[in-house]
Amino acid sequence: MARCFREHAETGLTILLTSANLAAILPFPDINPIAVSLGPISVHWYGLAYVAGILLGWFYARRLVDNGKLWLNDTAPMTRQHLDDFILWVAFGIVLGGRIGYILFYDLDPVLANPIRAIEVWNGGMSFHGGLIGTTIAMILFARRNQIPTWSLFDIVAAVAPIGLFFGRIANFINGELWGRASDVPWAMVFCSPHVIAAHNGVCPAGPDPRHPSQLYEAGIEGIILFLILFVLTRWALALKKPGTASGIFVIGYAFSRIFVEFFRQPDEQLGYLLGTNWLTMGMVLSLPMVAIGLWAVIRARLAAARQMA
């Protein structure tokens, strides 16, 4: 029996090693960042990722609102019409907050030297933390204007946010940007392709070294895993009945996911590592306060629920 087990184990190890070796020779896919060109108009995968994330998030949010049993007193605190109206607000919050956040956190000096760079979204792109701040402001203003419980709006947006994160990171991967640190893991990739080189005036910005595909790590952890956690919490644990719980868990989950992936992700060139270290990055620094904020939100939600039951 022991011999049979050993033989099966050796066979499994051989398959794993073979798969790893195959992955090691897989090149970075040469996908054109431009999905569709219509004359002078070009539609990029990055833009489509934002559209897909917002629309699919809106569709899933409507499903949550339709299910009254998920909410406090078995009644959703908002309607489908509210969500329809909110789409424009959240879109502006994400885009404006994301761009302004990137400038402030990662690219301030170059923008001050050349202000036109502020609207050149291809120079650096967007910041999640800035987008989160912009979306939060949009949610607070919309909730007050429409007399919706703010924490419940936070929760429904938190439940759908991983969908957008997933598509955004896949778009980063297609663009060959935000790559990982140099590595010799079997699945490391050289982030050079004809389209990437062409987009950077004949230069491969990631260099010739194989690197962690950290965009895919983030898509899997921040996108798929975090979505599943929030799905279980909202659908089975009925977290929406305690307003603030889902949003708190989202903030904590994203913070830990981002901090973890930052150990594999190459820091932004203009910033590098912080405080003279070879590991601390701006992404980590911006994510650390999110842990405290998320914990506070969860504790506040539990205390509020306890007071209602008392």
From TrEMBL:
<keyword id="KW-0812">Transmembrane</keyword>
<comment type="pathway">
    <text>Protein modification; lipoprotein biosynthesis (diacylglyceryl transfer).</text>
</comment>
<keyword id="KW-0472">Membrane</keyword>
<comment type="function">
    <text>Catalyzes the transfer of the diacylglyceryl group from phosphatidylglycerol to the sulfhydryl group of the N-terminal cysteine of a prolipoprotein, the first step in the formation of mature lipoproteins.</text>
</comment>
<feature type="transmembrane region" description="Helical">
    <location>
        <begin position="279"/>
        <end position="299"/>
    </location>
</feature>
<keyword id="KW-1133">Transmembrane helix</keyword>
<protein>
    <recommendedName>
        <fullName>Phosphatidylglycerol--prolipoprotein diacylglyceryl transferase</fullName>
        <ecNumber>2.5.1.145</ecNumber>
    </recommendedName>
</protein>
<dbReference type="GO" id="GO:0016740">
    <property type="term" value="F:transferase activity"/>
</dbReference>
<feature type="binding site">
    <location>
        <position position="169"/>
    </location>
    <ligand>
        <name>a 1,2-diacyl-sn-glycero-3-phospho-(1'-sn-glycerol)</name>
    </ligand>
</feature>
<keyword id="KW-1003">Cell membrane</keyword>
<feature type="transmembrane region" description="Helical">
    <location>
        <begin position="219"/>
        <end position="238"/>
    </location>
</feature>
<comment type="similarity">
    <text>Belongs to the Lgt family.</text>
</comment>
<feature type="transmembrane region" description="Helical">
    <location>
        <begin position="12"/>
        <end position="31"/>
    </location>
</feature>
<keyword id="KW-0808">Transferase</keyword>
<feature type="transmembrane region" description="Helical">
    <location>
        <begin position="43"/>
        <end position="61"/>
    </location>
</feature>
<dbReference type="Pfam" id="PF01790">
    <property type="entry name" value="LGT"/>
</dbReference>
<feature type="transmembrane region" description="Helical">
    <location>
        <begin position="86"/>
        <end position="106"/>
    </location>
</feature>
<feature type="transmembrane region" description="Helical">
    <location>
        <begin position="245"/>
        <end position="264"/>
    </location>
</feature>
<feature type="transmembrane region" description="Helical">
    <location>
        <begin position="150"/>
        <end position="171"/>
    </location>
</feature>
<dbReference type="InterPro" id="IPR001640">
    <property type="entry name" value="Lgt"/>
</dbReference>
<feature type="transmembrane region" description="Helical">
    <location>
        <begin position="126"/>
        <end position="143"/>
    </location>
</feature>
